[in-house]
Specification:
This protein is mainly α. The protein has helices at about 10-15, 20-30, 40-45, 55-65, 75-85, 90-100; strands spanning about 5, 35-40, 65-70, 105, 120-125. Helix 5 (about 75-85) crosses helix 6. About 50% of the residues lie in helices and about 10% in strands. It has one domain: Rossmann fold. The strands form two sheets. It has a three-stranded parallel β-sheet.
Length: about 130
């Protein structure tokens, strides 16, 4: 199996708005048309948006086709370690911990939120 990715909420937003560069859209198409991985936090965040009925329906379909990674003991322990070492918001710590616990590369535009986390691999599709 090749490289696995965890998609952050902001990337889903940019993808649905079609505001990413062409190269980034092509990169994400390959991931999204496979089985995309998202954290339970991303599911909560994205389904909390106040948006049009059509976009909400598209997002629900997208989430139903994702591998949604719930909190487990490994992710929880990793999150706690991150929060003790670094000033990071709990949702971001859960996302980072999910990527770390599963050895996934995090796809996000918010690189600064995840900087200096040992072992975390990050791709910003705006920079492809």
């Amino acid at each position: 199996m090749g490289q696995q990715y965890l998609i952050d909420t902001n990337i889903i937003s940019f993808y649905f708005a079609e505001t990413l560069p062409d190269k980034a859209m092509e990169f994400l198409d390959g991931i999204i048309y496979d089985v995309p991985n998202v954290s339970i936090i991303t599911q909560i965040e994205i389904l909390s948006w106040n948006t049009s009925a059509a976009l909400e329906s598209a997002i629900k379909i997208f989430i139903s086709e994702c591998n949604v990674l719930n909190l487990d003991e490994n992710i929880t322990d990793s999150c706690i370690r991150l929060r003790r070492k670094k000033s990071i918001k709990t949702p971001d710590a859960i996302i980072a911990a999910t990527a770390l616990a599963n050895n996934y590369t995090l796809i996000t535009a918010n690189e600064k939120d995840f900087s200096n986390i040992k072992g975390l691999k990050v791709i910003n599709p705006h920079k492809l």
